[in-house]
Input
Amino acid sequence: MDKLLDEFLINLNSDKGRSKNTLESYGRDIRQFFDYVKNNNLSILKINKTNIIAYLIYLQKSGKATSSISRSLASLRSFYLFLFNNKYIDKNPTLNLESPRIEKKLPRILTIKEVELLLKQPLITDPKGSRDQCMLELLYATGIRVSELVAMDVNDVNLNLGFIKCNGTGTKDRVIPIGTMALKALTQYIQNYRPYLLREGKSEQALFVNFHGSRLTRQGFWKIIKYYTKKAKIDIDITPHTLRHCFAAHLLENGADLKSVQEMLGHSDISTTQVYAQITKNKIKEVYKKSHPRA
Output
């Protein structure tokens, strides 16, 4: 079974150029299915549609979120299509299986004042404070994902022209302009403080590094944003993705067009971006109800 999974992931990476995070996600989903198959004395190559449905029900009873179940089914669809196309099986058991409907929840958005409060928390008098402020400013200024932030190298930044190159999901690269505040923070960090974080004699291309002089991880950034949220006394569960949501929503609130925001976020489908337009509409309704004398 492991050999089949390895072949599938290699094929997925070489033919479709999926990101490392996507490949890891597919791998986790399919290994979880392998465990289910083994525990129920089934065979991976003899699975039928009823077995797949039973597995989805099992995930539901185990307390898995609808989004997780839907993702697992997507992973299995891709896996069994690979097996079918490569003649490991005669029939694809995932054909015509519908994904469970996912209730779309609007992301929680900070107000502009709350964002400003969060961005003011790092003390830029030392390397750590400068690095942390730079990361927060850059996330809010560009809307890039945290995985994209920690994957950035020094060469992805153009201080003279004021833009960054972002290596997006799969093969999607995009160039994003950065504002005055983010550019100032980047310049100060790169020129004055990043050298202090690097270990002497160590060659590291990563833009953001930890105290060991190595590339900062997503988990490392998670701890950072949690720390500054608590320090700012913001009573909202802020995640590393929150500033990306704020970037999109605040742009639309201030008149940016949906297509431009879609391109900056790197969304392949504009329907993904439209959720932020819904947030803006809801805010307008709230303002109307609070302000209009006959609302």
Notes: The chain has two domains: 2-85, 112-290. The radius of gyration is 23 Å. The CA atoms of residues 148 and 168 lie 6 Å apart. The chain has twelve helices and three strands.
